[in-house]
């Protein structure tokens, strides 16, 4: 199961981004569960969003806004398709690639 976690302490989380993200995933038929959590300690690059799935690389993004939604959807499709979660080329995810804070090995 792939999970996207939105920091509910950040502005995007407080603004309902988790619900927006869940609706976008549902509209695109992307099998991703969206959850919220308290502070993810990305305050210097708030708002933060994490992606993880069993046996895959995990990703943490910062400075997320609603304007990033199209790039997040592209990232999600690539992430779901990648057996180990590694993206061979980050250019298709646009500016989101510059918002990556960390890649965490499985």
Protein described:
This protein is of the alpha+beta class. The chain has a single domain (2-104), classed as Glutaredoxin. Helices cover 26% and strands 24% of the residues. It has three helices and five strands; from the N terminus they run βααβββαβ. It has helices spanning 11-14, 17-27, 69-81; strands at residues 2-7, 32-37, 49-52, 58-61, 100-104. The mean pLDDT is 96.
Number of strand elements: 5
Residue ranges: pLDDT <50 for 5 or more in a row? none
- CATH fold field value: Glutaredoxin
Rg of Cα set: 12 Å
Number of domain modules = 1
Computed structural class? alpha+beta
| Element-by-element helix/strand order | EHHEEEHE
- Percent range of helical residues: 25-40%
Write down the CATH class. Alpha Beta
Number of helices: 3
What is the rounded distance between the termini?
14 Å
Q: Into which percentage range does the β-strand content fall? A: 15-25%
Query: How would the global form be characterised?
Result: globular
| Main pleated-sheet profile | 5 strands, mixed
Strand order of the largest sheet: 2-1-3-4-5
What would the average pLDDT be, to the nearest integer?
Answer: 96
Q: What's the CATH architecture name?
A: 3-Layer(aba) Sandwich
CATH homologous superfamily caption: Glutaredoxin
